[in-house]
Task: structure prediction
Amino acid sequence: METDRDSILRNVSSLARPIVDEAGFEWVEMELAGRQGSFVLRLLIDKPGGVTIDDCVAINRELSSLLDQEDPIPSRYTLEVSSPGLDRPFKTERDYRKAVGKRVKVVTVDDDGGQVTRIGWLEGIEDGTVEIVCGDVKHRISVASIRKAHRELDHGWENG
Result:
């Protein structure tokens, strides 16, 4: 059953997606946090080469103006437009593909239910399986078995 929050997000998304698409950005995620009267509407956008503050300001202004006209949120809210950031969790195979050649952190669960964390270099993704090199060891991990994954800072002194 759709909640009020789901309905608001669906309506706002239908207004916001064309703005994001026409400006040449990738829609990453939208969430509505908080509670009625003090909602925070967060929109994450991305583009090759990264998103600048000016990009966020431009999308915020255009979307804010449209939301003021259409009024799809029945109470006070704050609109935040930002880039997903380096530590954004991977949600799609596309996220993994964009990180090929980069240092990543991957968390899986072993057969006993224990958490296994690997930090290494993402060599590739094919047929739902990622290849990560940690030191001298190459791991092939099913994307379906991954609980969390994101880019990891490369400090230059670590060896995987």
User: Anything to note?
Assistant: Strands lie at 26-33, 39-46, 77-82, 103-109, 115-126, 129-134, 137-142, 146-151. The CA atoms of residues 124 and 131 lie 5 Å apart. The longest strand covers residues 115-126.
